[in-house]
Amino acid sequence: MRDAYRAADSWGPDVPPPLPAAPRPRRRVRVLAPLGAAVAVGAVVAGAVVAGVGEPERTPPGPVAPAATPYVLMTVSRGLSVVDSRTGLVPHAPVPPPEKAGGAKAAYNAVTRGAGAGEYLASISTLVRAPTRRTPPKSSSRVYRVTVTGDGRAEIGAPLDWTIPGVLREMALSPDGRRLAYLRAMDEGPKLGVLDLASKRHREWPVRTAGIPDTTKSLAWRADGLEVVFTRRGTVRGLDPATGRERTLVPATKAPGGIDSAVPDADGLTVAVVNGKRVRLFQYRGGRWSKPLVTIPGCGGVAMFTRAGDGRTLLLGRDAAACSLPIRLYAVQDGQVRRIFKSDGTFASVAW
Question: Which end of the chain has less Cβ packing within 10 Å, N or C?
């Protein structure tokens, strides 16, 4: 628990056919504006069909991805920090967690992209020391709304009306923005949960560790919002929140290396595989592996792997403390890798 504390983003309705021509009135009618508007709409729709070579444009359902923002939000030892992905600079000092009374210690643990551009959710855990050494300290977590302004400043908003014991190590907002998946660290063992943001009701399932340290990470939602995806012990797993059933999406035996993290996309997964001192990204679709999309050399594992709000850019962080190297944050898009940040510090969670 103390280690976890320290570690402390079908088709739509068819376009209606052109409206029929209005019959010529026999006498003057006072209300002409609605009739003229209807004819104009019919002309516009008809023009759209012609411009589309006979077929109206159809748009898949689902939420629109937030507009791309140049700022990346991350948790660091001193609070919340914002990095400008264009320059790799930190425009403002980290924002510390709110002060707690009674000797309590607060820290940011996890961040996730919100429903809109520049909107985020951040979990803050509070550790209350026990009056005696024989009594272990107690911790609890709350989730706060965070906004990153146009000049790269993080502003902490009001918390959700929800408090839960333990430390929220990871969080992921569902595509429709209504549910929050989280991974909670507790003394009796980790749990995977889903919170309904409207009703504040949550369901949890214990993480089966089989007596070994928990390796669950890379929490994300499938694009249709029907399943929570994560990795554990070299496999990619999926949890159906409606039934609580868990299944294997990608077995370790068929991977081209050690599976570390995975990010769902529209029709499959992008999987980060570690081979020695390099990380390679693959697409996994229909039970088949693609050729390597990119290769990122260098020492260190994958600290985090997520998708940016634009829906196209992948964000991958590497923590090479064991190799005495700084942390590195990379943006991956269209087969190109760009390092956007490097620091000698540590981070626990990143969202873009």
Answer: N
Q: Give per-residue pLDDT as tens, 301-340.
A: 788 899 998 888 999 998 766 676 778 899 999 999 999 9
Tokens of 102: 């009674």
Beta-sheet strand order (sheet of 202-206):
167-173, 179-185, 191-196, 202-206
- C-alpha triplet 140, 145, 150: angle, nearest 5°: 145
Reference 73, options 171, 178, 191; nearest CA is 171
Write down the pTM of the prediction: 0.77
Q: Say how far apart CA 299 and CA 28 lie, in whole Å.
A: 82
Q: pLDDT per residue over 123-146, tens digit each? A: 999 987 766 677 777 889 999 999
Residue that is written with structure tokens 């050399």 in the block: 297
Tokens of 131: 């009056």
Bridge-based pairing of strands 71-76 and 79-84 is antiparallel
Record the tokens describing residue 149, joined without a space: 């302004």
